């Protein structure tokens, strides 16, 4: 395992490479496999590198009870019973083979977040290229070990987690044999306010745990993801839907296809703009050098005439002497006649 690059399928992820953008379908298929396939098509058309599922059933992720803690309090799903929410949001296991096949047929990577061992078994049977650990499962060390033991790359979201909990999860993943590891900074609020994002954590996360870092972005819009790329994120995960107006469990904080396409383009542009530490003109600036300021004869000057602030000025373009020489030139005499508009050069100055 190396922190310099992680490979999912044939795509390397890491510094110096375009950010890897994952379109999270979640439950935005609204229980319709045709919509799920349309979402995969939309992710491909947007330019995303991968589409991601969530592999669970209501019975593998919670209990069918209504006791304390089994209802959501506050936020987007306020009052919903966990079991009912997951019945609505889950992606039926019977769909997985068709969804994986369709994604591969159109040329986009597909993988999933498993929520128990049986989900890992299903995804292994489909030769999933990687595994994602959701924020709420980061404390499930046995699940992390099971995913890592497949030898596939592991992506883990860190929403809610303390440094100690992240450290435990990273140690478990490395010890169990994950072939690569990416940690995603995450704010587990739906939607997440910008003020809660604390994106400056990203480079610290990468350095502290010696891994690649990215962002699981639950904010509205694309700004947080683009800012994360500027801070070194190599992996961006964002929920998406076909239309927020059509509803769905996650649609309120999901991007529509045109927004997802803009996210992909803007994140890649941000990564390209980072470039390298460099001073001096770039190839794109060479022609602009001619328009810098330089010293020019501003009035017709006769041979032997004294050069003054009236007949020598710093102006554009840049074919004369550098303006830093102005004080050294003033008070000298012209070595020959020079009309207005002549770029000043040392041979125009008498010894």
TrEMBL record:
UniProt key word Transferase: yes
Domain AFP-like: 294-351
SMART domains in UniProt: SAF
SUPFAM superfamilies per the UniProt record, alphabetical: AFP III-like domain (SSF51269), Aldolase (SSF51569)
Enzyme class: transferase
Key words, A-Z: Transferase
Gene3D superfamilies reported in the protein's UniProt record: Aldolase class I (3.20.20.70), Antifreeze-like/N-acetylneuraminic acid synthase C-terminal domain (3.90.1210.10)
Pfam families assigned to the protein according to its UniProt record, in alphabetical order: NeuB, SAF
GO MF, one example: transferase activity
EC number: 2.5.1.97
Domain of life from the UniProt record: Bacteria
Protein name as it appears in the record: Pseudaminic acid synthase
Origin species: Phenylobacterium conjunctum
